[in-house]
């Protein structure tokens, strides 16, 4: 946790201010996040701000047990998470965090918020607002707002530029490769590396895989993203075609069954499949299980499925986010910005909740700009400022050719 803190100067500055101003004083916060050393630093920041916190995991495989123990025993943060917990335990931990009777929630994927809305409606009256960390959670919460069932305002931290442009792109790009390499120790150079989805995560992953010397193929459903991938120099094709040539496949779409039965049938012997999207729904593991004549664990994070055609397909980390299942998630330097946004968004909600409606809000632009400014300062990078003449010019229409 101290090692991560060294790379999180922006969150450190927020924490210093929080300990003086105590903006979260007396507020109960239920947080459902990947329980990592970076998250621990966010929890300590909220605690410095005066919050009373309960933390549970946002994925059964992403918990760092030592961090969970340290938070509970040394820092008085109730933490409900065990790496490898089954689905029942996972949801019982969410219930335990909700037992705090939160007035603010912090979620990553919206499992806590949906549990609260489905099973603990008695608690909703006291909840003032919440934040959401990731793309998939924002999609789910927007659907709730559209259907009129969302009962309190949410700030979508994912939508901050200082979150998705860096965390999703550079964080997922690097840490997904880290997870694949730790799980398999394969050489990426010369391999055909298929990236499904060219959103923020996909862009980062494709560029980092290319940097390792892999031949990167992109699959997409959005014509604009597909065009972008093609112009960034990647081969773009349907998964059905990519299935035949790929050595490694990684899904980062937030979608379901992106790699499915017809694709498994075409894959080469020894193909490696991983997912870095939020849920383990992107590779249809149920279909693969039905197709397999034999399944065995060949390395700690590798399950090998033998098909009737004799080919073996290797699935990493049970199809769960591989960067957190087999590695340590994003490096602290990038979580610094995501979690500074989280802390500041929670402070914003604590101050403004009564003015907000029951819908999903973007992070206020001032918070985004403040996080970028603090990060640049911590990196020792200075930038120019608009002169008065430039400000006038950029806001006028009089001057032309
Ligand atoms: N592993 C991590 O640490 C981490 C970090 C951030 C986000 N995420 C998760 O990763 C996923 C992607 O996030 P993002 O920010 O890149 O989202 P995004 O919306 O920017 O990109 C997703 C892309 O996938 C494409 N897509 C959808 N269905 C597809 C299909 N069937 N085949 C091919 N492409 C398809 C979409 O057109 C889109 O371009 C989400 O589930 C998000 O929650 C994971």
Can you give a write-up of this model?
This protein has 401 residues and is an alpha/beta fold. It folds into two domains: 2-163 and 329-379, Adenosylhomocysteinase-like (Rossmann fold, 3-Layer(aba) Sandwich); 172-325, NAD(P)-binding Rossmann-like Domain (Rossmann fold, 3-Layer(aba) Sandwich). The chain has helices at 2-6, 9-21, 37-48, 65-75, 87-98, 111-119, 135-146, 161-184, 200-211, 223-231, 239-245, 261-266, 285-291, 322-325, 332-352, 365-379, 388-394, and strands spanning 28-33, 52-57, 78-80, 104-107, 129-132, 154-156, 192-196, 215-219, 235-236, 248-251, 272-275, 292-299, 302-307, 312-316, 360-362. The strands form two sheets. It has an eight-stranded mixed sheet with strand order 9-8-7-10-11-14-13-12, with helices on both faces. Strand 10 (248-251), helix 12 and strand 11 form a beta-alpha-beta unit. Helix 3 runs parallel beside helix 15 (332-352), helix 5 crosses helix 6 and helix 15 packs antiparallel against helix 16. The chain is globular and about 65 Å long. It starts with a helix and ends in a 7-residue tail after the last helix. 50% of the residues are buried. The model has no long low-confidence stretch (mean pLDDT 97). Nicotinamide-adenine-dinucleotide binds next to helix 7, helix 8 and helix 9.
């Amino acid at each position: 946790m101290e090692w991560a803190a060294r790379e999180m100067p922006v969150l450190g500055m927020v924490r210093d201010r929080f300990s003086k101003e105590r903006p979260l004083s007396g507020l109960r916060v239920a947080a459902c996040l990947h329980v990592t050393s970076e998250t621990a630093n966010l929890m300590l920041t909220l605690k410095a701000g005066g919050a009373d916190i309960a933390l549970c995991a946002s994925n059964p495989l992403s918990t760092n047990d030592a961090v969970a123990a340290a938070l509970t025993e040394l820092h008085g943060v109730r933490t409900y998470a065990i790496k490898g917990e089954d689905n029942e335990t996972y949801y019982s931990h969410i219930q335990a965090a909700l037992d705090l009777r939160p007035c603010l929630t912090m979620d990553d994927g919206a499992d806590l918020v949906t549990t609260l809305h489905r099973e603990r409606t008695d608690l909703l009256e006291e909840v003032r607002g919440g934040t959401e960390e990731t793309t998939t959670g924002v999609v789910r919460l927007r659907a709730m707002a559209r259907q009129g069932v969302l009962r309190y305002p949410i700030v979508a931290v994912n939508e901050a530029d200082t979150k998705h442009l860096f965390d999703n792109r550079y964080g997922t790009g690097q840490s997904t490769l880290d997870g694949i390499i730790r799980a398999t120790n394969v050489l990426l150079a010369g391999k055909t590396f298929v990236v499904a989805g060219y959103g923020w995560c996909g862009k980062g992953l494709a560029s980092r895989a290319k940097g390792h010397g892999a031949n990167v193929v992109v699959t997409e459903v959005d014509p604009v993203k597909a065009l972008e991938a093609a112009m960034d120099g990647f081969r773009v094709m349907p998964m059905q075609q990519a299935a035949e040539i790929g050595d490694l496949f990684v899904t980062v779409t937030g979608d379901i069954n992106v790699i499915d039965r017809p694709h498994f049938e075409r894959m080469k012997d020894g193909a490696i499949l991983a997912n870095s999207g939020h849920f383990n729904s992107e590779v249809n593991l149920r279909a693969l299980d039905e197709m397999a004549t034999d399944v065995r664990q060949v390395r700690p994070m590798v399950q090998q499925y033998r098909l009737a055609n004799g080919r073996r397909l290797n699935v990493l980390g049970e199809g769960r986010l591989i960067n957190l299942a087999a590695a340590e998630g994003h490096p602290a330097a990038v979580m610094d910005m995501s979690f500074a946004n989280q802390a500041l968004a929670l402070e914003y909600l604590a101050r403004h909740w009564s003015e907000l409606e029951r819908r999903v809000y973007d992070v206020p632009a001032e918070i985004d700009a403040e996080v970028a400014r603090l990060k640049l300062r911590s990196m020792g990078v200075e930038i120019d400022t608009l002169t008065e003449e430039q400000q006038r010019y950029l806001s006028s229409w009089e001057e032309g050719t």
